[in-house]
Amino acid sequence: MDNVKSYVEEHKDRFVSELVDLLKIPSISADSKFKNEMITTAQAVKTELEKAGCDLVEICDTPGHPVVYGEKIIDKNLPTVLVYGHYDVQPPDPLDLWNSPPFEPVIKETALHPDGAIFARGACDDKGQMYMHVKALEYMTKTNQLPCNVKFMIEGEEEVGSKHLGWFIENNIEKLQNDVILISDTSMIAKDVPSITTGLRGLSYMEVEVTGPNRDLHSGLYGGTVGNPINILTKLISSLTDENNHITIPGFYYNVEELSAEERAKMAEAPYNEEEYKKKLDINDVYGEAGFSTLERGSIRPTLDVNGIWGGYIGEGAKTVLPSKAFAKISMRLVPNQDWQEISELFKKHFESIAPKAVTVKVNAHHGGYAYVTPIDNDAYKAASKAYEKTFGKTPIPQRSGGSIPIVSLFEKALKSKIILMGFGQDTDAIHSPNEHFGIWNYLKGIETIPYFYQNFADSQK
Amino acid sequence: MDNVKSYVEEHKDRFVSELVDLLKIPSISADSKFKNEMITTAQAVKTELEKAGCDLVEICDTPGHPVVYGEKIIDKNLPTVLVYGHYDVQPPDPLDLWNSPPFEPVIKETALHPDGAIFARGACDDKGQMYMHVKALEYMTKTNQLPCNVKFMIEGEEEVGSKHLGWFIENNIEKLQNDVILISDTSMIAKDVPSITTGLRGLSYMEVEVTGPNRDLHSGLYGGTVGNPINILTKLISSLTDENNHITIPGFYYNVEELSAEERAKMAEAPYNEEEYKKKLDINDVYGEAGFSTLERGSIRPTLDVNGIWGGYIGEGAKTVLPSKAFAKISMRLVPNQDWQEISELFKKHFESIAPKAVTVKVNAHHGGYAYVTPIDNDAYKAASKAYEKTFGKTPIPQRSGGSIPIVSLFEKALKSKIILMGFGQDTDAIHSPNEHFGIWNYLKGIETIPYFYQNFADSQK
Predict the structure, then answer these.
(1) How many CB atoms sit inside 10 A of residue A64's CB?
(2) ipTM of the predicted structure?
(3) Residues of A with Cβ-Cβ distance to B400 under 8 angstroms
């Protein structure tokens, strides 16, 4: 693989422009208005996989958005790497906070990215990180250095909880057989502090609807007489956490994994500066569960966040309305041993039970997933670690992320293989936020590093 | 005035169609997009006042939307009635809950309105009730029975707190001199239970903005580490009322007028059926401040209602965002002796003081007004009461309303005259709600009743 650096150097402009083309397609899986764009994006990924050297690529229908499957099998006796990624993106709103339109990619230099970063929804999450694998495959095939078999499973529903990927896997167990699953949908600590994600939080995403009177009312004539669904919704939500920001849902903490003192001490060694952290976010203070450090609250502890709330008059000026309904989207990040379906049930039962008689409450589950922790003593992890050593000149730090890839735990259960999370993005990439971007340096570094993983892993299986 | 019934009967179709024409103009004062429609509406009102017999009508500019002033002075020595009303309307949203477009009036029969009701934004509040006075003037001038002078002050900013009416009055004290102010912007108990509104609540309307991190964040990577502005907003709002739904803002109740046992007993005599009340609104229970009846909570007690709340992702599906900002519109209904400016200050001070360091809070006042109570032992009230006796065959019940007409208390202060609130609408008219309507029977009954007030009042001043 020793000419990978020069190959990347030689082709980098095309690598970037091919990604820019993909980023122009608004593949927003959460919004049914973009159904056609989802298909167009899947077709674009198919074409790129073929160009990169796959012998077989298919767009596989599911009850939801299609999965793009690709493979290059060079020798049944060699190990197989399954690459997972997703071509769908988060909704871009609030649009007014973007400095350039989310689906018109622009390249700009930033303090962190002197070589430029691509600004667009999906630049990092996950079109950019997914394309690193496609380009890495191109390098290995064009230079006849692919040391093992490779399969790609690129889905279109990750941002809406991989609704139908479980169904797809169940129906393609044979086809998806592999020795290790490789995913780039996480971040690393810094350009000079490479890290491998060894843990992900689980997720339970709920939506609640509170209904009071059967129509919007005049807040003067009715104010004080009937339950205002917004007032009551704020009481219900606020009661879900206590004064120490512990979650009050009965049974919520029942299975929560408690880390040992050593494990917590080891975590505390990761480079982190709270003053810088606050400065970057313009906040006067951090906030969260009492008794845990910021790093711990963001990775090994479960959380409850309102992701959206709405009700009543939200336009310009004033309207003295007492609304009929109020809504909220509420998600909980979960840790190992918490069963997301059980948590969703506990949430529903609790939320319905605390609502006063004056309103009716509807609680629906959007989606969820289990937390995941990967061991660091197996061949796959070692292969990844050595790959970073080669290209970064440093041993990567194993790090547990606060994010979730709900489907990861299912991979392990259904496909019986370990998952390696090699992320090349950074926390500052503003994924899920306005002005999402991906450093060109990071993109190219990923393309350069991935082939070494293939080599190390293939060698380890001989 | 004895031919008023037949005059109304003869001209009712035109009276209705003239109102329908006015209702077609979307005069939404809260939304600057409708600035031109406001002017068009003012011009339409001017034309109708001229047709009704005013000798002088002018559209008076203010720093905001214009005021339509009209007068017919028949004899300087006779008393003068000043009619106040407004031509602006509430925003119509949520639009999807209207059965017909808010500015395309339709006439439909309902259980309560066998003679039909006009469905449109502003049908009752206040274009319909304001037009009753224009048509009543037409009757009195066309039949040479106008017993006194009349002035009209029809403003365009009532639904946004009469922002500039104070300014207009200060600058036109002479012109607006009168012996009584007549307003139809309230409701009566029922068609067979006429009532006169003797009290209005005050209002303080605030808007709050809670800011956490400087950008929307990924709720996985940051969930648990920083203050989520929505979670915190729900805690702040929920803390504004305690478990008995008493408002917790320090000093809030300081000046609240406490009614005597007799007064409360008298109130309790008003016809009211809680089961019917709940049935009409499809609620299992009423809700509000402990220790007071529903009627009391809706009229003589102050309240705090969230009129709108928004933040984060409110689109279809799920977005795992930890938003940068969350907002709410919060209004308080006030009772006699509460100073709305002082209450707004107390709210601001308190809300800012309870916010945790993890967020910054902005609190702005939209508008407000004082509560008002009118005595029932003066000539004006007696003249109104006798007018109802004549046309309804029943003595009207004096009733305190929960609504507010912020400007009313200013009228008394600035113009030194009493205000009579002769409302012909009903609580079921859905003012400020989708499908606002005004019964044609109510509209015509108002036109029929008003001239008797003029006669009774003029006689009482001889």
Answers:
(1) 20
(2) 0.83
(3) none
